[in-house]
Amino acid sequence: MNRSPLTSKAFLPVCAVVAVMLQIILAPNIAIRGVVPNLILVVVVLVAMRSEVLPATVAGFLLGLVFDLVTAGPVGGMSLIMALLAYSASSLKKDLFEGNWVAQVLMLLVAAFAGELLHNALYSIIGYDRDFFASLLLRALPGALYDSLFGLILFPLLQRFTSSRKGAGSKLLKGGLN
């Protein structure tokens, strides 16, 4: 039986564990000027684009909660943001993303910016950051760019692992799947 790794029940938990490990071990060590990439956000959005709405939203919430627990911020904020991003990415028409890697990359870029912007707004509302615009320019925008960069690195890897067709990952690198 030729099953895609995406149809396996272990796919989502494996991606979740890998995302948490990358966030805890790798992300703090590659921070640039205090901006740490949110690798959990990247993995949540990439997996949500390929998953059903309910599992993606639950995974986004749980991974956001783990993010809140391992970082020095308020608990619950990132879980809400990740759940919203996962719901948005997974509820869009799958026809939009099917074989269209440009749309997938653009969705990732928009989601990274929205996630960092919402996280920055939350911190400003609860008083964690005093100056919204300074933290927007110094943390949220560079963070969104950094998240997007890692998304562009992880996107072909996830595309290769989730492809049910042999050689589809190499077709992506040669110019598209259409």
Unreliable stretches (pLDDT < 50, length at least 5) are: 1-5, 165-178
Helical residue percent band: over 70%
Q: Provide the residue-averaged pLDDT.
A: 80
Content-based structural category:
mainly alpha
- How many structural domains can be distinguished in the coordinates? 1
Order of helices and strands: HHHHHHHH
CATH-derived architecture: Orthogonal Bundle
Classified by CATH, the class is Mainly Alpha
Q: Give the oligomeric state of the chains in this entry, treating copies of one chain as homo and distinct chains as hetero.
A: single chain
Question: Biggest sheet, in brief?
Answer: none
Radius of gyration: 16 Å
* Mass-distribution shape: globular
* Cα-to-Cα separation, first versus last residue: 25 Å
According to CATH, the fold-level topology is: Arp2/3 complex 21 kDa subunit ARPC3
How many E strands? Answer: 0
Q: Helical segment tally?
A: 8
Relative strand content: under 5%
Features:
about 180 residues; mainly alpha; Arp2/3 complex 21 kDa subunit ARPC3; about 70% helix; globular; disordered N terminus
Walk me through this protein's architecture:
The protein is mainly alpha-helical and 178 residues long. The chain has one domain (9-167): Arp2/3 complex 21 kDa subunit ARPC3 (Orthogonal Bundle), CATH 1.10.1760. The chain is 70% helix and 0% strand. The protein has eight helices and no strands. The chain has helices spanning 11-26, 39-48, 53-70, 77-91, 94-97, 101-125, 132-162, 168-173. Helix 1 packs antiparallel against helix 2 and helix 4 (77-91) runs antiparallel to helix 6 (101-125). It is globular, with a radius of gyration of 16 Å. Mean pLDDT is 80; it is low at 1-5 and 165-178.
